């Protein structure tokens, strides 16, 4: 028979086992099993964001998967993303040592660089320069956007008689805005070989990267399919040659008393910070000049893709298109739209927000990594863990968005007909935390001015032609 001492020891043993089980569950977030060597990769198929959203229904808004050689956590709600990227920003702002990150300026670039004191200074310099030359308060910024918006509208009007694909012209026009802000507004971009080469190389890189780089998560593949790694390096080097040529041209004509654009701003910053590298976190000329490549690479695709989605949705939902047109007619009339009109066209702005929600152009952001061991919601996350933010999943959260699969711009309006700022803040279009996109204000200006300009100048003509055709 058991005596009191034996019973006590047995109870202690049972409770210890339970405690160990609970502790183990807290070490690693729950998640699905994967396969040897490749992990969960084969199960993603063609739509990883949607698959992650489905997995979140089973495992919660923080779950763990194995991506090839890398243990990975996926954050699937706005709350989880903010808890990591904002509340523990220093811990969750690193980048994984992927092959693609390493070859981009040896992990010292703004977009793919390791998170440390040098990167924080680099980020501060980049944001300051961009704000200096692209601020909404600078008339040149609005002038550049309006000029390109008018060119795009003219292209639409010239092709209203037959069906056409606007993709190339939208990409060219939106990209031209960023290029002129960075390299000078006196550029005739459509006849600028440097710009056209940059456009070509950027599209090549996007197409290559869009297909995914399996070498990032399975580094041993470099020895199995070396051509994949070689091709990535070749494309990157071509892009670097383009931006190096731009910087060289600006250095030759640089005048400290007359800073013309972002490239000049970076040259000025290099002279300020690189003369005393020990004092300034060992930041180098190469680090600062590489910022131009980050700005140009990030500024081309996201805004142009969003504008394409807006045009696609409004082509499908004629009643929403007509409502936007009535708002523009009643508020702006025949005068030219300006940045001062932001806030005066709430339904138009709500349509932009709804497009960004239902069709996020960056459904899963650039991978983050943890810089040290940490705890997130009682789960232990080891240093070097890859962190994926499923922004697509946040836009399909039925607790936040009623009927999330339906395109409804009015969801962003409050009872008074103005933008519901609290709901707008639920969107993480431009990321969160220290790695948030520094050029978000440019994208907002572009989308507003491009959309209103297109509708104001082309809608009525299209309607008139449709009426004439019916007659």
UniProtKB/TrEMBL annotation:
Coiled coil: none
Subcellular location: Endoplasmic reticulum membrane; Microsome membrane
GO biological process: hormone biosynthetic process; progesterone metabolic process
Highest taxon of source: Eukaryota
Gene Ontology cellular-component annotations: endoplasmic reticulum membrane
The UniProt record lists the keyword Transmembrane helix: yes
SUPFAM superfamilies named among the record's database cross-references: Cytochrome P450
Keywords associated with the record: Endoplasmic reticulum, Heme, Iron, Membrane, Metal-binding, Microsome, Monooxygenase, Oxidoreductase, Transmembrane, Transmembrane helix
Segments crossing the lipid bilayer: 6-23
Membrane topology reported for the UniProt record: Peripheral membrane protein
GO MF annotation terms: heme binding; iron ion binding; steroid 17-alpha-monooxygenase activity
Main location as per UniProt: endoplasmic reticulum
Alphabetical list of Pfam families matching this protein: p450 (PF00067)
Keyword Nucleotide-binding: no
Family: Belongs to the cytochrome P450 family.
UniProt name for this protein: Cytochrome P450, family 1, subfamily D
Organism (species): Mytilus galloprovincialis (Mediterranean mussel)
């Amino acid at each position: 028979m058991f005596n009191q001492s034996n019973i006590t020891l047995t109870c202690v043993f049972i409770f210890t086992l339970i405690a160990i089980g609970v502790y183990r569950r807290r070490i690693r977030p729950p998640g699905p099993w994967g396969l040897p060597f490749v992990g969960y990769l084969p199960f993603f198929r063609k739509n990883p964001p949607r698959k992650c959203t489905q997995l979140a229904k089973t495992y919660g808004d923080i779950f763990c998967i194995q991506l090839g050689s890398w243990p990975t956590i996926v954050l699937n709600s706005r709350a989880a993303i903010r808890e990591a990227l904002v509340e523990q920003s220093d811990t969750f702002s690193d980048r994984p040592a992927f092959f693609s990150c390493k070859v981009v300026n040896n992990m010292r670039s703004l977009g793919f660089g390791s998170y440390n004191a040098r990167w924080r200074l680099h980020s501060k310099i980049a944001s300051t320069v961009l704000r200096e030359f692209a601020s909404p308060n600078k008339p040149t910024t609005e002038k550049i956007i309006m000029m390109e918006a008018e060119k795009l509208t003219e292209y639409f009007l010239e092709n209203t008689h037959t069906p056409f694909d606007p993709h190339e012209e939208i990409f060219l026009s939106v990209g031209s805005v960023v290029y002129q802000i960075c390299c000078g507004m006196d550029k005739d971009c459509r006849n600028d070989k440097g710009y056209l080469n940059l456009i070509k190389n950027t599209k090549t890189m996007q197409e290559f990267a869009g297909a995914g780089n399996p070498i990032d998560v399975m580094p041993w593949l470099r020895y199995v399919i070396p051509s994949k790694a070689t091709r990535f390096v070749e494309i990157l080097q071509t892009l670097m040659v383009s931006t190096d040529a731009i910087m060289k041209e600006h250095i030759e004509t640089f005048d400290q008393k007359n800073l013309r654009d972002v490239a000049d701003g970076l040259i000025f910053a290099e002279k300020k910070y690189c003369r005393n590298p020990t004092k300034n976190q060992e930041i180098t000329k190469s680090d600062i000049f590489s910022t131009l490549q980050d700005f140009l690479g990030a500024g081309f695709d996201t805004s142009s893709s969003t504008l394409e989605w807006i045009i696609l949705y409004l082509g499908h939902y004629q009643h929403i298109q007509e409502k936007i047109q009535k708002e523009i007619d009643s508020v702006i009339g025949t005068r030219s739209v300006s940045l001062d009109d932001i806030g005066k066209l709430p339904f138009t702005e709500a349509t932009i927000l709804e497009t960004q929600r239902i069709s996020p152009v960056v459904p899963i952001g650039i991978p983050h990594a943890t810089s040290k061991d940490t705890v997130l919601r009682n789960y232990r996350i080891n240093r070097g863990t890859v962190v994926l933010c499923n922004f697509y999943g946040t836009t399909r959260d039925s607790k936040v968005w009623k009927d999330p699969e339906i395109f409804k711009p009015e969801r962003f309006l409050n009872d008074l007909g103005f933008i519901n700022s609290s709901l707008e803040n639920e969107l993480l279009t431009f990321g969160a935390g220290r790695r948030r996109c520094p050029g978000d204000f440019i994208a907002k200006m572009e989308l507003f001015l491009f959309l209103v300009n297109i509708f104001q100048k082309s809608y009525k003509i299209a309607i008139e032609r449709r009426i004439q055709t019916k007659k």
